[in-house]
Specification:
Distance between the termini: 49 Å
Low-confidence stretches: none
Largest sheet: none
Order of helices and strands: HHHHHHHHHHHHHH
Number of strands: 0
Mean pLDDT: 92
Radius of gyration: 19 Å
């Protein structure tokens, strides 16, 4: 029972349910890289690399931000500030996650064996940025945008412009919805002297920035599709992403943030899963 409870705490620490945001787009990169279903070997190791990388990123974020989280009523109940896990336990978890990531990387294309420090540096730097700049959301987007890029490189050993377009689409998508997420803590961030898009540009700036970034998401998916041998189902997937993003922006508006949780979690999870489903169907029929 103790082991089960500890496992639950670590799963909560890294928000395992949020894997739905990044993992499907890693698969998108893998499937489009070969315009087919990748080998079981590649899919297994890409999945394990993503699990290790994402667990490391989230655990580092929680560890570095533990004192800030303790001063925020919304985050004070998290595992570290609430004492449900100790810093030593989380450090061990980080090392285990890094080990899993490295083992997985070494089973994939040699190119990613040289590139693996890039995301790790991104994970370490991100939590500190809110202390200095309101551009942290763009950094987070760029780090998450490595998912399709890394999966593509892990299979093909190259990074053509189409892969960069896919990565850019994910980066813009994540950065856009992270702007909305910054609205949860705008008052606390101002009190603590932390920086975010919301503290710098206000609610109106958040909505304007998110619209621009999500328009870029759709544009970059279109650009990637124009360079790849995709079929009609890919384009249907791009259309689905556009519709869901438009719906997300209808859920919340300045002065009415009651459905912000639905916009952030439910709609973005649907975007990730729906686009992957369309890409999978496309490669199966073309």
């Amino acid at each position: 029972m103790i082991a089960i409870e500890v496992t639950r705490r670590f799963a909560s620490l890294v928000k395992i349910e949020h894997t739905v945001f990044a993992l499907p787009f890693a698969y998108v990169g893998a499937f489009l890289a070969v315009n087919d279903v990748p080998s079981t070997h590649d899919l297994v190791w890409i999945t394990l690399a993503m699990v290790g990388a994402r667990s490391l990123a989230m655990a580092l974020n929680r560890l570095i931000d533990a004192r800030l989280d303790a001063r925020n009523p919304r985050t004070a109940g998290r595992e570290l500030p609430a004492g449900k896990l100790t810093p030593a336990q989380v450090i061990v978890f980080c090392l285990a996650s890094l080990a899993l990531f490295l083992v997985a990387v070494w089973h994939l294309d040699p190119l990613v064996r040289w590139l693996w420090p890039i995301p790790v540096v991104g994970f370490v730097v991100y939590p500190y940025l809110k202390r200095f700049t309101w551009l942290a959301h763009l950094w987070l987007g760029a780090v998450d945008g490595l998912a399709p890029l890394g999966a593509w490189a892990a299979i093909r050993g190259d990074l053509p412009w189409e892969a960069w377009a896919l990565g850019g689409a994910v980066a813009a998508w994540v950065a856009g919805f992270d702007l909305f997420y910054s609205l949860f803590d705008v008052d606390v961030d101002r009190e603590q002297g932390l920086h975010s898009w919301a503290t710098r540009w206000g609610v109106g700036g958040v909505f304007g920035g998110a619209r621009a970034l999500h328009a870029a998401t759709v544009g970059l998916l279109v650009a990637a599709g124009l360079g790849l041998p995709v079929g009609g189902l890919y384009w249907a997937g791009v259309g689905a992403v556009a519709v869901l993003l438009a719906y997300e922006h209808l859920l919340v508006r300045p002065g009415d943030l009651r459905r912000l949780d639905a916009a952030f979690f439910t709609t973005n999870g649907a975007i990730s899963l729906a686009f992957f489903a369309f890409v999978l169907a496309d490669v199966l029929v073309t």
